[in-house]
Design a protein that fits this description.
Layout lengths: L1 H31 L16 H15 L4 H12 L14 H31 L3 H11 L5 H22 L2 H11 L5 E8 L1 H4 L7 E8 L8 E6 L6 E7 L16 E8 L11 E7 L5 E8 L1 E2 L4
Parallel strand pairs: 1-7
Antiparallel strand pairs: 1-4, 2-3, 2-5, 5-6, 6-8
């Protein structure tokens, strides 16, 4: 009997210890993963339905013995590097990580060469021949000093756009420019006069499209700052504004487009949000719809 009790307590201790370790690792993982439908929120902070599903997926993978690196890789392959708060080190992000150090190294190198050349020229000025040569160089538009000075001035100007174009945001803007954007939904949004009185000017407007039936994750989403003086907005949704690879406007025929004004700036609908919606029964390459925001969400 005593032996059985000892075995029981040992198993109980190991179980609690394992739970504690998994709990710590779970909290760390959901803090380092981005909510795909929220504005600058981690999975730990978000109440969105998609965030809840991803948190459950993390729990399942931990229970299967997967570690945090396996989970990060799974999320990255499915939702792209955007889901990770810390971008991975690969060929597309090397300059993002090491570019500033490279620029600093080159700038210091040019500065060192400049100082060294200046000292040599001061020594050579003692000789008449070198004085005359120096004067001829000074009169030249493309003298060595001026070339080095131009390079030092141009280096930051060149490095800044190179750095920007190596970032995720710039890569997204370039891909967006060349990407196939159809289907496109042009949305005219009008705010009812009674609803306008409820706006303080600190809200944002989420405009998103989702399937009329089935999975409710956004097919496309756009976020607009609300101006207290405006009652009409023109917003565009297109194929590139999806949150999940392969799940975009081209994957649905019947679509519900929702405009939601909120002061909470989260994807989850909150009490007091201002809502309007419209249905597209047959998605075309170009769609024009109107939405009137005319009701207040009260958890109904």
């Amino acid at each position: 009997m005593k032996i059985k009790l000892n075995v029981f307590f040992c198993l109980l201790f190991l179980s609690v210890s394992s739970y504690g370790n998994n709990s710590d690792e779970y909290n760390e993982i959901i803090q380092n993963l981005r909510c795909l439908v929220c504005q600058n929120q981690s999975l730990a902070e978000s109440d969105a339905s998609l965030a809840k599903d991803l948190r459950q997926k993390v729990v399942e993978m931990l229970s299967q013995g997967k570690d945090k690196n396996d989970i990060y890789e799974y999320m990255r392959e499915r939702y792209s590097d955007y889901v990770l708060y810390e971008p991975p080190k690969n060929l597309s992000t090397y300059f993002l990580w090491y570019g500033p150090f490279l620029v600093l190294f080159l700038a210091l190198g040019f500065a060192f060469i400049k100082v060294k050349n200046s000292k040599l020229k001061n020594i050579n000025k003692k000789k008449n021949f070198m004085d005359n040569l120096q004067k001829s160089k000074d009169s030249s538009l493309f003298s060595n000093n001026k070339i080095i000075l131009i390079i030092l001035l141009l280096l930051p100007l060149i490095s800044i756009p190179v750095y920007l174009f190596s970032s995720d945001y710039a890569s997204y803007k370039i891909k967006y420019f060349f990407a196939d954007k159809e289907p496109i939904v042009n949305v005219k949004i009008q705010i009812d006069d009674q609803i306008t009185e409820l706006i303080s000017g600190e809200e944002v407007m989420f405009v998103y499209a989702r399937k009329k039936s089935g999975m409710k994750a956004p097919l496309a989403i756009n976020i607009v700052k609300v101006d207290i003086l405006k009652d009409t907005y023109f917003v565009r949704l297109d194929k590139t504004m999806n949150m999940i690879d392969g799940f975009d406007l081209s994957s649905a025929k019947e679509v519900e487009v929702i405009a939601r004004i909120t002061k909470y700036q989260t994807a989850q609908v909150q009490k007091g949000d201002l809502l309007g919606a419209s249905i597209i029964d047959n998605m075309l390459n170009k769609n024009n719809i109107s939405i009137k925001i005319n009701r207040v969400f009260n958890n109904e």
